[in-house]
Amino acid sequence: EMPPHQRAAAGLGRTFQNIRLFRSMTALENVVIGAERPGNTLTGQRDEAALNARAMSALTFVGLGPRANELISSFSYGHQRLIEIARALAANPTLLLLDEPAAGLNSTEKLELHALLKRIAAQGLTILIIDHDMTLVSEAAQHITVLNFGRRIADGESLAVLRHPDVVSAYLGTE
Q: How far is CA 98 from CA 20, 66, 163, in A?
């Protein structure tokens, strides 16, 4: 069990099932915190400019660059999710862990999230998603491991796993 700062230094970025943003701060200020991972910080003003630039780049990547200086409280729930993903991306992780990223999103926001996940994967970043939204999982994942009450019932290439009888009965329902 590594402490959080060591996990971050090892290249793990993550979001949480329940949004954990600093509500009294702007979107940019929240994302700068992600950019400040161990190993990314130097000293002096040039470094602050670099952190701001990396944070701005991450916000722009998720489509919220123009709103960087708005307070978190002015963003919809779905956009707060995107800011949380931007904060994780700002640390330049090699593995992005998303804990129920689709929770609480409406259908339009889920489509935006899916498009974003595709763009993140296209950058070569490995994404580990924990979610029970089988539509999101089936569209986003190349490899799926399915747990039912903590027991692994299927593991492998997405299509094969989604057709597995135990997965169908546990998550997709039978006719």
A: 13, 24, 24
Is 132 inside any structural domain? yes
Residue 79: which of 90, 65, 98, 89 has the closest Cα? 65
Residues of the chain with pLDDT under 50: 40-41, 44-45
Entry pTM = 0.83
**Rounded Cα–Cα distance for residues 167 and 81 (Å):** 28
CATH for 8: 3.40.50.300
Encode pLDDT of 106-140 as tens digits: 989 988 999 999 899 888 899 999 988 888 888 88
Q: For residues 42 and 149, what is the distance between their CA atoms, to the nearest angstrom?
A: 45
Nearest to 59, CA basis, from 49, 45, 70, 48? 70
- The answer to whether residue 126 sits within a structural domain is yes
d(Cα 39, Cα 57) in Å, to the nearest integer?
Answer: 19
Instruction: Find the angle CA(16)-CA(17)-CA(18) to the nearest 5 degrees.
Output: 90
- Domain carrying residue 112: 4-141
With 0-12 CB in 10 A as exposed, 13-18 as middle and 19+ as buried, what is 45?
exposed
